[in-house]
Each structure stands twice: as structure tokens, then as C-alpha cells.
Amino acid sequence: MNIVLLEPEQTQSELWNIENPRQFQHLRQHLQLQVGDSLKVGIRQGLRYLTEVVALNETRIVVRPIETEAVPAKHPVHLILALPRPKVLRRMMMDAVTLGVERISLIHSYRVDKSYWQTPFLQQLDDYVTLGLEQAGDTIAPEIQLYKRFKPFVEDVLATLITEQRPAYVAHPYAEHVMPHAIQHPCIVVVGPEGGFIPYEIELLKKNGCQAVSLGNRILRTETAVPSILGRLFI
Amino acid sequence: MNIVLLEPEQTQSELWNIENPRQFQHLRQHLQLQVGDSLKVGIRQGLRYLTEVVALNETRIVVRPIETEAVPAKHPVHLILALPRPKVLRRMMMDAVTLGVERISLIHSYRVDKSYWQTPFLQQLDDYVTLGLEQAGDTIAPEIQLYKRFKPFVEDVLATLITEQRPAYVAHPYAEHVMPHAIQHPCIVVVGPEGGFIPYEIELLKKNGCQAVSLGNRILRTETAVPSILGRLFI
């Protein structure tokens, strides 16, 4: 947690209270805060501030904003992920948010177990976004959409998003071309499920304007591939 | 698991048995193997083969090597990691191995809890390496060393490894210069603990030849930083 994210309604007065148990406990455990210390605080979908601790007790920390700080810019990338298994969903969402993805679409694919769409973790996406923003020092949540049908998504949604200025790259271990690096333009990145997209899916993606690109001759887990791809694309 | 890794002593005869329960169960669960199917098998520290399934029953799969395949090359990077907390040690080691790191040193640092050095997970590093190799399709384990004292490591070990041809980069959020990208030379990458190196440590690293470099203005978790850095350095 590199900033504390507060809701706009928590920041209406001159002094702001940090009393959410998760945030309060984290600060208690990791920082030995005292009155007069500074603390970075962001307002969800708003500005980021350097604040000063003016009071603290057993249940809350009271801070006063001192000055605004820059909110880190996002990368102009729309990440499309085959819905990961519940166990890694949290980590992948947190990572994507921390890494500064502008938009995330979770989609179905042949190798996505149907049961994954029933996981209660899908109700917690907002919490994962908050954790990712607090890690990155960011305040602006990416847009998130869910698409439970692969073909309609690719043909009716994805195909309309791809332009010459915003190409789409599908990570595919056996592709002939390699993923570009240090790009200067917006893009769409598509990452398949564990085990990869099936050939029919790769063909449909290509037919609808995606470029299949490889990440070299090592096959990465999807949760490793996402930070690796983003680190490579946006330097 | 993109190859099955066997020990050299398991591959002395013409037919090889896959009967390790973890490997056997994984293949059972994820592949509907039948006699005649092909399967990628690697020999630890040796070659990699395309094999053919010649028999299978409830406890083992028997394969016959058909032809050798290329083992993916490693990246010429020595990764130095502040010992992560036990919960993320497995993932970080697997990721580093999958991503093709040549050598890994786990080191102490001020913000590494001393208890981390007692975790039983440190006895399982070889298992994590195996998982990472099987994911990547690699057969060659990286060298791994542990250094429980920071200062002697930096002064007596790290300082002697750094040359003009093999620079060392310490990921540090507040550094003035940025991490290079798409490099063509060997390097050393140093990644601190959660919460970062303390100023004394950064100074000692710099004094001993390391370059402090930033990853931009988003602060990444260490487990996210490692694939992101490697994806950026080696394209």
C-alpha cells in the first residue's frame, strides 16, 4: 500500500479519517505513524495528496491534506484476459491495475472452466482494483467488462475496437512474429487461458484483426506473461 | 507443465517411465493421453525430446524418445532478490526460472524478516526450480545461492561480479535514471524486499558499483516487478 485510497465522500471536510479496518491495520502494522508524519492519500477517481497526520487513536488516523501530487499516468492498453481460475484472479487483476492498464475485459474461452464464472471472487473485483491502485499510487480505476461468450465478443466487440492506430496482439507461443516492444501507440493485448487458446479461437481472433505474436520460446504462465508483456511494451 | 522433466537415471533404457505421482496426476488430469500420442520430455541438465507414448496404466506412462528438440536459451542475467516472504517465495522462484534467469541469489536485507530464513519452503527450492523448468520447457536449472548477510554479500561478492560488460541494476522507485530496455549484454538485476531497500542499503549498493534505476512512477510488488523487468530487458 503506497497510498491510502479514500472515497470522495470521506474527503468533504478539512480533516479526513482513515478508519477502514483493512487500511488502518495495514498502516498500524507497517508504519509507526506519529502525529506530524506525512502520508500519501488518494481520492478514488480524483486527486492524490501528501497529507499530515494530525491525530491517531486505536481505531482511526486523522490526516490533513497539505499538497497535491501527480497521479501516475496509465498505459494506453486494453487488456483482454481469458477469465483466470479463481485462485489467480485476484493477483492478475491487482497486477494489471498496478501496472497501469486502462481497461480490462475478462472473456470466456474454450479452456476456461465454466465454473470460474460462478466464483464469488468475481464479486470482489472492486476490492482487487483498490488493492492494485493503492500499490501503484494511482487513484483512477480501469474500466472492467465481462464477456461470457467468446465468439460474439470477438466478432461484435473486439473487431470494432481494433484500428490501424490501435492494433491487437494475441500472445500465442507458436506465432511466427514476436510481440513488439517499446511501442508509442495504444494497443490491445489478448492473453488466453492456462493451456492457451484452441486453434479455432486463434483463427477467429486473427480473422477479426488480431496479430498472433510470440513471447519467445519459453512458455509463461498467464500471470507471469501479463507483467512481462506490459514491461516489454511500455518502457 | 509444458515438458515432463525426468532425472538422467530414469532415461538409461530405451523406454522411459513417468511414474512420479505429481507428474503422472498432472498428465492424467490435463491431457487425455493415449498410446501413440506425443509428449515432450526433458532430461534434467540434459536434452529435450519429443517422445511417443507406448503404454500407460493406472500408475505410469511409458514413452519412447523420437527426436531431440531445442532447449530454450537462458537470458544472461543474474537475479539478486531480497528473500521474499515464504508465501511468495515459490511463485517468485518459479517465475524467475520460467523466465530464463541464469543465476539467482537470495539475500538478506533490513526489511527481510529474519524468520523468513527459517521457512521450510527454503528446503523446497529444487521443487520450485523443477516446476519453473517444466513450465518453460527448459531442462537446465539456474545456479542458486543464499547469502544471509547483506553487507558482506555486497562488498565481497556482488562488487566482484560487476564489470563494464556486466552492469548491475538495482530497481529503486526514486532513482533518477530508468531501467534500460532491450539490452544485448549480460547484466545483474537486484530487486529489494517489500517496502524496498533502506537508504543505507541503496548507498552501499551504489558505492559497490550498482546503478539505481526506476521502473517509472508506479510502485510494483516485487513479484510483479521481476517479470516486468525481465520482459523489458530481454526482448
From TrEMBL, chains A, B:
Keywords: Cytoplasm, Methyltransferase, rRNA processing, S-adenosyl-L-methionine, Transferase. Specifically methylates the N3 position of the uracil ring of uridine 1498 (m3U1498) in 16S rRNA. Acts on the fully assembled 30S ribosomal subunit. One of its GO terms (biological process) is rRNA base methylation. Residues 74-231 form the Ribosomal RNA small subunit methyltransferase E methyltransferase domain. One of its GO terms (cellular component) is cytoplasm. InterPro entries: Alpha/beta_knot_MTases (IPR029028), RsmE (IPR006700), RsmE_MTase_dom (IPR046886), tRNA_m1G_MTases_N (IPR029026). PANTHER family: 16S RRNA (URACIL(1498)-N(3))-METHYLTRANSFERASE, RIBOSOMAL RNA SMALL SUBUNIT METHYLTRANSFERASE E. The keyword rRNA processing applies. It comes from the Bacteria. It comes from Acinetobacter venetianus (strain ATCC 31012 / DSM 23050 / BCRC 14357 / CCUG 45561 / CIP 110063 / KCTC 2702 / LMG 19082 / RAG-1). Belongs to the RNA methyltransferase RsmE family. Its EC number is 2.1.1.193. It holds the Pfam family Methyltrans_RNA. It is found in: Cytoplasm. GO terms for molecular function: rRNA (uridine-N3-)-methyltransferase activity. The keyword S-adenosyl-L-methionine applies. It catalyses: uridine(1498) in 16S rRNA + S-adenosyl-L-methionine = N(3)-methyluridine(1498) in 16S rRNA + S-adenosyl-L-homocysteine + H(+). This is Ribosomal RNA small subunit methyltransferase E.
